[in-house]
Amino acid sequence: MLNRCILAAFSAAPLLFVAAGAFSADLSGQARSWSGCYVGANVGFAKADVDAMDRPYTQGPFAGSGFSWNSVGGPYETIGMDDKGLTGGVEGGCDYQIDAGGATLVLGGVLDFSAMNLGASGTSAIVSDTRTSFDVDWAASARIRAGVAASDMLFYVTGGYALANINVRAFDTQTVPTPGLMDVRGGSTEGGWVAGGGVEWRLKENVSVGLEYLHYDFGKVTATGGATFPVEAFPRFENDVKIDMIRVGLKWRL
Predict the structure, then answer these.
(1) Whose C-alpha in 43, 68, 101, 176 is 20 to 30 A from the C-alpha of 55?
(2) What domains can you pick out in the chain, each with its CATH number?
(3) Strand partners, 213
(4) 3-class DSSP state of 220
(5) How many CA atoms are closer than 13 Å to the CA of 204, on its beta-carbon side?
(6) Which whole number is the average pLDDT over 31-40?
């Protein structure tokens, strides 16, 4: 689904730029330098994919035994979850243009912050009382970008370090012999990496519009802790967290 959205968005990019050009009063055809700093705002669409893996205990008397919450000795279950929704954010950065052998290269750095409201839950196929969930409230990044400019168009790739507020949970809703046999949590501000690419068009000397795709990978975010019953058990659910985002943005060059 997300792949089709990405392809459709990139296919529509030329229409976006043509429409934006209708509002430009400075289309002299003379190429403008990309050197300088900017601030901007963006809106987009994101999808979070999270796989919660029921892993063997690493604490307590069962550590090293091959026991997990729902399995003994494997295979160990993975509970898939996903959610999608709108995002909105701000960004700022600087670019430096290099003219080399007839090619116009642009190197730069950017900081950004995106607010979002993504979250979902999943149910074990082995024991239906076992549930997992996740929430992501925001994501930010510090990236470099490198591209090639053709007149007022810039095509670039980008990548760097990412942060996000991610919370994960695993819980057991069984009420016999006691309520809440398990309720373990994990996460907070988590680090990872981000990579992607985009295209940007200078409408005026100090205004540009762009389309960008980013893929975030935050690795394993673990929900663990002591179970209510049995008290010797320490459930461990490792959540593999990935986010894909596509967005359009407007930049004001300083």
Answers:
(1) 176
(2) 2-253 (2.40.160.20)
(3) 197, 246
(4) strand
(5) 13
(6) 91
